[in-house]
Amino acid sequence: MQITASLVNELRQKTGVGMMQCKKALTETDGDMEKALELLRKQGAAVAAKRADKAAKEGRVYLIETADKAAAFELTCETEPVSNNDDFVALAALATKAVETQAISSVEDLKNAVVDGVKINDRLQDVLVKIQENIDFRKFAEVKKVPNSVFGLYSHMKGKIGVITELAFEGTASDEAALKQAAKDIAMQAAAFAPVALNDAAVPAETIEKEKEIAKAQIEASGKAPKPEFLQRQIDGRVAKVLKEIVLEDQEFFMSEKNPKKLSVKDYLQEVVAKQLGLTSLKVVNFIRFERGN
Questions:
Q1: Which pLDDT does position 54 carry in this prediction?
Q2: Containing domain of residue 155, as a range?
Q3: 136, 166: one domain
Q4: pLDDT, tens only, 74-113
Q5: Angle, nearest 10°, between helix axes 228-246 and 205-221?
Q6: Could you give phi then psi for residue 223, rounded to 5 degrees?
Q7: Domain for residue 66, yes or no?
Q8: pTM of the model
C-alpha cells in the first residue's frame, strides 16, 4: 500500500508523534492505521521500560478543584525543560479533565480514563515515543468535600509542591472569599513546613516509635541521663516537641503579621479567623501535600 502524506499526517494528528516516526510505523504495518497506532504505543511502552532506571525527578504537581472534591496528581519527567513541553502540558490537561469529570481514585484509574475519545495511557505512550524520556503519572489523591467546608489550593514554584487543604466550619459563612483565603494560607503553611500528619492521632505509630528511640539515645549520649523513673518523662517531652513541628494543626501559624500571638494553626483558626468571620468553629479536616520527585 502506498504511504501517502495525508495518511502520515492523519497518524500524526492522532498521536502527536513526528512525521518520520509515523511514516515508519505505517510502512511497517502496510498502511494499516490501527496497527500503526498499536505499534507506536508499543514503542512508547518500550521507551518507558528502557528508561525506567532513569531518575524522573522533574515534572509538576497539578491541583484540581470541583464543586464536590479536590484532587492532586504528579506527572514526572527526567529534565525540567520537558515539563514545559507542549505535549507534556497537553497530557496534563487531558488528565486534569479526566479528574474533573470522572470518578478517579488512583493512578491506574487516571491512566485508564478516556477523555474526548482518547485513553490517557495511549496518549502517554505517544508522548513517550515523541520525547524519549521517562514520563509517568506518579501519584494521585483526592479529598471529598464535606458539608460546610471550603478548599484551599496552593502551588509552589510552578508545581514543585502542591497542597490542598479543607477547612470545615460551624455557623453561617457570610464571607466565603475570606474562608477560602484562610484555607489557602494553611495550604501555604503545609507547603513551607511539610507536616506529616493533620493531628497527633494521624501520626504513624512507627514515626512515634522512631522519635522515642532517637530521644532516648540523645538523653543517654548527653551523659546526664536521669533516674529510670524520670527517663520516660523526658522522652515523652522530647517527642511532644517534635510532634509540634510535624503535625499541621500544632505547628505555629507562620504568618506573623496575622498571628502576633504565635498561636498554633488550630488555635489561630479558632481564636482569630473564626471570631473575625462570626463562626462557631473552624478547623482543618483534610490536607494533601505532594512534592515533586518525592
A1: 66
A2: 147-203+247-294
A3: no
A4: 999 999 999 999 999 999 999 999 999 999 999 999 999 9
A5: 130
A6: 80, 5
A7: yes
A8: 0.80
